[in-house]
UniProtKB/TrEMBL annotation:
Residue ranges the record marks as coiled coil: none
InterPro entries named in the record: DUF1867 (IPR015074), Pyrv_Knase_C (IPR015795), Pyrv_Knase_C_sf (IPR036918)
Cleaved signal peptide residues: none
Species per Swiss-Prot/TrEMBL record: Methanobacterium subterraneum
Official protein name in the record: Pyruvate kinase C-terminal domain-containing protein
Length: 187
């Protein structure tokens, strides 16, 4: 099999529209139904929904207090659009940091989960995010683990990475398989 991978010169939001275009194309080629999207504010997931209203989409944002305080960064306007369309929004701790990062921050050192996250970042921050949100959504029962899905993630704002993968639950993390990289920034 031969398939192209799109590499972006830079990471970040400037790649969002192209990633969505590439995901739509690959979704149709492979007949994939499920898409999981990392979207802090909800805007990127709204864009995916507008481009692929037939997809089973899950939006993943991070927990309250991620940037300090007790606030969520999910914007109410975007959340309402997603809720109205029946798109589930997962709000929770990162599967590849969570309590482990809290332990490292308090006592120093590094946990095995942080080593996994660091290894995935060798490809790109977006690849790490794609794996992470897939595990989170699977653990919440929002994403099947018996078929391929497309995961969309990025670096800071917007998205710059998309992969085809077979998710797994946290308890059997190493059953997760990254089958294709659709797009990612060059590190």
């Amino acid at each position: 099999m031969e398939k192209k991978i799109v590499y972006f010169k830079n990471s970040g939001a400037e790649n969002t529209d192209k990633v969505i275009e590439l995901v739509k194309e690959r979704k149709e080629e492979l007949g994939i139904e499920n898409i999981v999207v990392a979207s802090v504010s909800g805007l990127t997931t709204v864009k995916v929904l507008e481009s692929m209203p037939d997809a089973k989409i899950v939006s993943v944002t991070h927990h309250a207090g991620f940037r300090g305080g007790d606030e969520l960064e999910l914007e109410r306007e975007h959340a309402q659009k997603l809720e109205d369309a029946g798109v589930p929004i997962y709000i929770g701790s990162h599967s590849l940091s969570g309590v482990g990062r809290g332990i490292s921050n308090k006592f120093g050192g590094i946990t095995p989960v942080e080593i996994i996250a660091g290894t995935l970042r060798l490809f790109s921050q977006g690849v790490k995010v794609c794996v992470e949100i897939s595990v989170m959504a699977a653990d919440a029962g929002l994403l099947p683990t018996d078929k391929e899905v497309i995961a969309i993630g990025g670096t800071a704002k917007g998205v710059d990475t998309a992969v085809v993968l077979k998710p797994a639950h946290m308890g059997n993390f190493f059953d997760l398989k990254i089958n294709e990289i659709i797009a990612m920034p060059r590190p």
